[in-house]
Structure formats: structure tokens, C-alpha cells
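Task 17 of the worksheet. Students: predict the tertiary structure of the chain below and write it out as C-alpha cells. Keep your answer in the requested format; marks are given for formatting as well as content.
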Amino acid sequence: MKLLAIGAAALATLVASTAVAQTQGPQNPGPAIPGVCVYFNQRLLAQSTVGQAVQTRMEQLATEVQGELAPYATNIQSEITRLQNGGAAVSDADRQAVQARIQEAQQLEQTREAELRYTLGEQRRLISVAVEPILVALYQERGCGILIDRESVFIVNPVMDITDTAIERLNAQLPSLSFNRLPVPAQAAQ
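Model answer:
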């Protein structure tokens, strides 16, 4: 199922971003450049309590969807086996009925995948809304002249990285989000 791939990709992203965050830098990271700050959004999503809560809930929702889709696969496989064993007694109407159920299951799977993607996107958007004023405050407090995305930088002096402080403040401000699978709005589905 494609859903397994989405869940696995989301989990791989989480694990990869955590691993990147734990990679050891050089012994001497060089001088801190005044006015240059760095922020790593993937690490915030992976290590903040709200990011971890979203990841856990998304895994639960994916499991629920897999449970919803599993009976379709079982029934379709049973019908296919029945048709294969039916030999000449199988009519075109029987074949068309199974094909219709396959298409129905595929459509449902695509709908649920879109709902999961949309739900994850909405939760990340809510986190971004919460973290933006935190980043603005840190930018001003640290006297940043530029805030660089950590994904664009290979190695940085840790003194210039504001991610840990952003995570701490986000944890205090938005410890969790409670949500269910969201339907994709009609305009977003087009």
C-alpha cells in the first residue's frame, strides 16, 4: 500500500533529521560571525514536544487508515481467488464487479492519502505560525542581521544556531496539538 510508503517516509524524515542534528562537528568550529544566525526547522519539528506529538498522532492516523483499507484488500483478494477457481462459469459481469471494487478501493486509498498529507501540512502550518514570533524575537534578541536556514549550511559555529532556544520556547508555548484526520477542502483537492 502507498500509505505504508507515506508513513515510512515521514518516519525516515524524522529519524534522518534527528541523526543530522546529532552529528559531531569539527573540534574548532571557527569564529562566530556577528549578526549571522542559523535556524534548523527540521530539527525543531523532530525534537520539539509538539513536533513529536504530531508525528505520533500521524502514525496513529496512518494505522487507522490501514485498518480501514485492509478489509477492501481482503475482500478483493477473495473475489479474485473465487473468479480464478470459477473457470468458465465466471461471467464478464463478475469480472467487471471485481474491477469496480478494485477501483473503489484505489479511490478510497488515494482520498485517505490526500487527507493524511493535508492533515500533516495543516499541523506543520500551525507549528510554523507558533514558531514565527519566537524566531522574530530571537532574531532581535541576538542582534541577527541575517537568519540562515541550517539546511543551506554544512557546518556552523553552534554559538550562531538559535534552534535550541526556539525549541525550548516552542515547548513552553505549544506543548502539543490535538487533531484528527482532516478532509481535503475542495479548492485544495483541485
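Marker's comment: Residues 38 and 148 are 5 Å apart (CA to CA). The first helix runs from residue 2 to 22.
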